[in-house]
Amino acid sequence: MTVPPEREGAPMASLKFAGRMLVLLALAAGMITVWLNRAALDPATMTDAIAHQPLAPLIFLGAHILASLLFVPRTVLGLVAGLVFGLFWGLVWAVLGSVLGAVAGFLVARYVNGGLIDLEHLPRIGPILLRAEAGGWRAVTMIRLVPVFPHSLTNYALGLTQLSLGGYTVGSLLGQLPMTVAYVSFGAAGGQMAAGTGGWIAPIAVGAVALAASILLPHWHAKRQTPPA
């Protein structure tokens, strides 16, 4: 005996709705937990918790993904990467973690939304997201370079659009790169200073250049977009 398609639809819709609600409840519980334990989220405490673990890179990546979902500032994770892994490997793991975290938030929002929200009816943020949707990876890059919204909120907001996952990922990687380099470099320099060893000047210089790039690139792009008088 076959079940008519119309009878299959209701149970599946109920399961999808229940799944979305469970995801939202899990995120809410995580955010509350982070808020209640926010004193433990400073770079020094997190560094002590990760540094001597045998699977430190994997622990860091997992922490970065959770941080991106739970509104923990990306600055903290960048500094921790520099303190724990140094400049080179800190950059590797921080860049990978920031991209994985951005993708995680994007996919969660896309799953929970499921086409329920019409961007055209969202005041203020709707037009911005529609422009990002039309602009593809280039628009995502510019949004990331100008952090008007918190990192986690940007991930969720862009997940409401019809951006392709590939374009979103590329734009997030490029747009987040300058500030990620700056955070990790300053963390690595701080680690060198705390250890009383030399070699902190190079990370400071790299971080300063990256910080300058993150400030100047949006201005350069805005100037290019301004039509001549």
Keywords:
mainly alpha, 229 residues, single chain, disordered N terminus
- The poorly predicted ranges are 1-6
Strand residue content: under 5%
* Count, helices: 8
Query: Rg to the nearest angstrom?
Result: 20 Å
Ends: how far apart? 72 Å
Helix content, binned percent: over 70%
Quantity of strands, as a count: 0
Q: Mean of residue pLDDT?
A: 85
Shape: globular
Topology as a string of helices (H) and strands (E): HHHHHHHH
Let me know the largest β-sheet: none
Total of domains: 2
Structural class: mainly alpha
Summarize the structure.
Helix content is 78%, strand content 0%.
Walk me through the topology:
Layout (H helix, E strand, L loop, with lengths): L4 H32 L6 H8 L5 H14 L4 H40 L11 H21 L5 H8 L6 H31 L5 H25 L4
Helix pairs in contact: 1-4, 2-4, 3-4, 4-6, 4-7, 5-6, 5-7, 7-8
Q: Would you kindly provide a written description of the structure presented here, covering whatever features stand out?
A:
- It is a single chain.
- The chain is mainly alpha-helical and 229 residues long.
- It folds into two domains: 1-36; 43-225, no CATH class.
- 78% of the residues lie in helices and 0% in strands.
- The radius of gyration is 20 Å and the shape is globular.
